[in-house]
Design goal:
118 residues
């Protein structure tokens, strides 16, 4: 137990000495963390409503993705990709659609061996 305490004390002392010698490093890290946290709270990345009024198409594309994905319907990937891209044209700021389109691409590439016509 004493050995752990000595190790922890030595690390804390070394860290404290480092901070005293280079005070700009902790200040820069703190500024970075604060600016990141402010940016995250100011912009969640997605509006609560679709920008161009494509809410039904957006919701339908998202639900279709999950139905195809959970149903493991690999053959439907190309059509699903077109649906997601069309929904993104109506609502380009929707991060969920963007993420699902990326997941669709990864799924397609990840299981390319199942493709009958590569």
């Amino acid at each position: 137990m004493d050995r752990r305490k000595n190790t922890v004390d030595a690390l804390l002392q070394a860290f404290g000495t480092s901070i005293r010698m280079r005070p700009a490093i902790p200040a820069a890290l703190l500024a970075l963390v604060l600016s990141w946290s402010i940016a995250v709270t100011v912009s969640s990345g997605q509006s609560s409503e679709p920008r161009s009024g494509g809410g039904d198409g957006t919701t339908a594309a998202i639900q279709r993705f999950w139905a195809v994905f959970h149903g493991n319907d690999y053959a439907a990937i190309p059509e699903l990709q077109k649906d997601l891209e069309a929904a993104l044209e109506w609502d380009p700021e929707n991060v969920t659609l963007t993420a699902l389109l990326g997941a669709n691409h990864f799924w397609h590439v990840g299981e390319y061996r199942r493709d009958p016509s590569p």
